[in-house]
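Cross-posting from the modeling subforum.

Setting up a comparison between two proteins and wanted a second pair of eyes on the formatting. Protein 1 (sequence, then structure tokens):
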Amino acid sequence: MTKWLPIVIACLSPWCEVAAISARAQTFDVDASRLPITEVDAAWRFHLGDDPAWSGPAFDDSGWPSIRPTTSWTSQDIAQSARFVWFRWHLRVPTNTPSLVLELPTIHKSYQLFADGKLIGQVGTLPPGPAHNVISADRVFTVPVGAHAAPKDVTLALRTWQDPSLAGSRNSRVNGGVFVGESDQVMQHFAASKAMALLSDGALYSVNLVSLLVGVSAVILFWLTRERFYLWFALSLACEALFQPVDYAAQHQAWDFYFYTYFEIFLDVLSAAAYILFVVDAVFPGRWKLTLLPLILKLVAELGILLVLWHVVPLVFGDVAYCVAEASTRLVFVWYLIRGWRAGNTYARLLFIPIGLQTLGSVSNNLGLMLSDFKVSWGLEIVPYRVTVVRAPFNVALNQAIDVVVLFAFLVVLVYRFARTSRENQRLASAMQAARDIQQRLVPADLPSAGGLRTQIAYRAAEEVGGDFCQILPRADGSTFIAIGDVSGKGLQAAMLGAVAVGALRSLAEELVPPARVLERMNQTLLQQEHSGFVTCLCIVLSSNGDMEVANAGHLPPYLDGRELPLESGLPLGIVSGSTYEQASFTLPPSARIMLLSDGVVEARSRTGELFGFDRTSRISHLGATEIAAQAHQFGQQDDITVITLDWQSMESLAEPA
């Protein structure tokens, strides 16, 4: 018969229910039940206002109305804006029970708990001192009873307070059952309740686990590639993952509600900023101005919350501002993806489905909440977290299912990008190796030394492959052909054009043509190439008797014993067809040093922006090639550096005794 009693009571008429509540309104007989744990949330007495006398056992609360504390208080004649609400109920404690333990679920108010007028517990701070509402959680409190030879009545009083500015923003009720009994049994029940709460959050933990796996994958991919695309996504997930531990810390440490909210807003903005950077970097790399619109909308959404906290606008206005701005942020992402898709961006197409699902869920959620603010009855029915799609082993809401699908979709995009980037890097590595092979041909490794000529070359590339080249070639008539040049641009294209120039130089050197003619024929050869760009080049023919012929196509002039040789400079090669070049002749003294260099020396720049310049170059032009290149590099290399020094001695000076 006992198991049917709840059903019978549920079927009684409303007036019978009211009578039942009144009959058992104040006293819960723990002794009569003989149970180690008793539920004590059927009916409490309540009163609005604040009076310390209401905590004492002698106070007569029979005139107070009754309430079901686990049901919304606002539906039971407690105004939503009420600052202070007192509750009272009584326990009849069995003989020889020195103390009991009370399990009190979460109450989104600051409160004090009294037993027979003595304060036995408190959550948050209440007036008359500094008062702050806090983030609460389930609590257990020891109720002292004391020695007694007969059953004893204990009066419990609960004094609650809420910040008036938060009225309506948090529910007003006891969020779960209230139990009292022996310590071991109540603590076991408390642990079981916690376990059930954890199980009920199984969907949330599942989403967090998937988020963790995807986030770790993004971190690994960033570590392997150093691409910010992965970093932004990992940072976004990391900020999202912090919400749950922050919630738990706030509940168990009773954080101030305002501090907690500001911290959550800070995390929300950080997460959104990283996510915005991720989307823009994927769809429009380098166009960082596109991050401004969604970031401004996100800040407007958070501003709606802040204005409520600062008592500037009512709660409904803040909710509407947040919902509209948040939904608009998501719609901007979709707009960006459509633009990227039309522009042929692969990642815009890949991200459209996961971000589209996120947008659909966000717009539905914010629209539903906004409609509920305006008392539209069906508003909450379109909110995804209220739609259950899986019920076992735990409930999974529609928004959580969408989150899992979206996270896996993002993981596919991350892996695809990594695979594509790896293939591209392999292709570039092969191209760079080919360019390095070409580079070895541009700067000779074996330097000829003939008669009274000794040569030294120093080369320092600004990148893996540079555009400088030089050649020192002995000719059949006993003279030496020397050339130094610089190709515009960098990388493989510059190396290829340099290879063409070197090939032409080597061919023309064998034909014994003068330097000016060499430059004219090289110009025509380069104009026939499909490569864009131009080449500067300086050519010298040095005969065995010290006569030197020089022609220049836009390159830096040579230095002779520390002085710049006066030399007319023509147009660089590969610009205008039919260009002609002047040729100058010089006779070297019996002992001389000629220095040739690329513009990487004079254009070296210090950290303060100062150029190495021609004056410094002139002062060190008497040094060897290696020393000159080292000084320019240490000063602040910006471009490829090539230096050639030619130490010349006539045969007569070599024959003289030391």
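Protein 2 (same layout):
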Amino acid sequence: MKQGISVIFRLIGLLMILSVSSAGFCAQLILSEEERAWLHDHGQELRLGVAIVPPYMLVNGPAGELRGLSWDYIKELEQRLGIRFNPVLASSYGEMIRQVRAGETDLVYGATSTPERRQFLTFTTPYGRLETHIFVREDHKGSASMETLAGHQVGVVQGTALHEFIRNNHPDILIRSYPDSSQSFLQLSAGEVDAVVTSVSTAFAYTQRNGLHRIRMEGPVGLNYEMSFGVRKEIPHLTSILQKALTAIPEAEKDLIAQRWFMPRDPGKVDKAMVLRYLAYAGVVIGVLALVWLTWSVRSMRREVSQRRDAEGRLAFLAYHDEITGVLNRSGFMHQLTAPNEGGRWQLIFVLGLDQFRAKNEIWGQRIGNEILRRVAERLQASLGTQGVVARIGGDEFGVMLKQLNTLPELMIKQLLKEIASPLLLGDGSVQLVTATVGASLIEDHADLDARPEQPLERAELALKYAKRHQRGSAAFYDASMSGNESRDQHWKEALTLAIRRHQLFLEYQPQLCLRRSKVIGFEALVRWQHPDQGRISPAEFIPWAERFGLISALGDWVLQTACRQAAEWRKQKLPFDYVAVNVSVRQFVEAGFADRVLMILEQTGLPPRNLELEITETLFMGDLETVRVTLDKLSGHGIRFSIDDFGTGFSSLMYLRQLPVETIKLAQEFVLDMATDASNYQIVRGATHLGHSLGMGVIAEGVETAEVQQALRELNCDMVQGYYYSRPVPASDITPQLLESLAQRAGHRQEEVV
């Protein structure tokens, strides 16, 4: 008993010390004359945007009083600054952001700084950090990561930083927007979405409130919430004032606020008032009850203190460190970049991105991928020693800061890339080869760093994108032209994303004919883009953009579904044809679940598998041949045809031609166009045709534009043809029985008949 009472008095003493400490810090709040004047004129009319998002902000009881972590900070600011915030309640978090953007409020709470929000808001330093994770149902098969959720429906609260992060960094994820996390978790429980992404504390609050227990937490999202006050750019004084007031709040007071809303609590703690009432009514047993209550309370308090200490340590570590590698995370990296230090100013910052890591991670598995990340982090730390800071700032990206440059930065980075590329011996005994690309930025003007600390990192990331676009495995240093390139890239990425969603894309079809039977046997589906301002944009331009921006899978799936739907419609119309041919990119083909998506599209559109041909390129076979073989076998087993597009321009191997279920090779048009007048091209077409026939494959020549070329192909026994001599690509509405008949007649013409 004495020990329990001692613990209670020590806690009371600690609270008194914290109270005195808090008062001391309050005295150090110093505002400039200009800030005091502004506060005097505007301090009672500040409009604060408020949305009910537990545990940041809640409504207490029928009276509608506000409470929550952010509300505690707001009351602290009001007390220290002598001002009053006028809450403007929004129906959702997204609506709160819209209101401040429209100037209907002056500031918002609990806002994470993002590129989009920085266009209309300025931010204080964060007053809290929350870890975000993926949440799935317990019956979800396998583990869930941002990569494995590609093509799946994911619930996100509209208008949040997570919504913007996923939209910009994971365009393959199908976002389902909800006004609050409560609805998103209800939809997850009902099976309407495959996953929900939100903060751990928010998930706990809503699942407990709705009684949803069959929910489990999976991997991190890649962006943690950093809760700041966001102030309209038109009010710069307010940001500075709030920043100073936040700084004046003692750390002990901040810890108490965090414990109040985030730390675990003992739900079974005895109500003291009730105990006293029972003691009053039962005087005979008062001593026994008092002893039981005191003993139980001390144990409960010890347990709660232990739980809080563990949770505090966990939250403190995760706030600044990466869970997988143990090095700093992006928040910790930025904290180090802006923190005062005695070892001199930062001289160089660079971002190292692992090449093709996402695709390799799908092949190797997440366990191997995580071990590779840990080993790369270890190599970086060992190479840099105490002269640099290492952080994992993205899925496959590491950030590095250096204070002293003992050699030319180009030579240092080159040596570092060489070390990263040396073989990695993993714990399972396997050896993996990893390469990396670097984007770097020299910090020459530290005034810019003080004014906008995130700028050097943004410049290094721009340089990394530039290096990956031009030569993977190399290093690029930032220059001003890269910002212009990034702006253009972002413009076209957004334009192409909208084009896919708003049906600015459409298909045209080019007939393919059998020379021997003189009839149309198929149609190649070709995607077109009619931009509302730029007019028609060539596929030669926007398909490389789709590859670069990570939109090629979404584009490819749209083309496949549209072509299959049209082919099914032609079958209903009794139009005579054998198949519709659709081009498939390498990235689309090797994605997990590609075969299942193709079969699902065929089932949805009602097109028999035998009426679909997928055109693939030779570069597909330069990767993991076994994975490719599994997908080819699965689809061909259902009757889907395959052809190799642009045969002869890439990596050709008789081995894969013999082993894989490919029915047709398609000769590249650069060889076919002038084969009637160019002897070398004629021999190439002749040899490729003979090779295809010897392997039991059909041969189709594209790019036929003259009767002479048709005659030469007929003499070489080429099976099929395609080109402007017969028809340009045309809309589906122009494909009629009359058109097919006229094309068949042209394919049946002999050269002497058309001369």
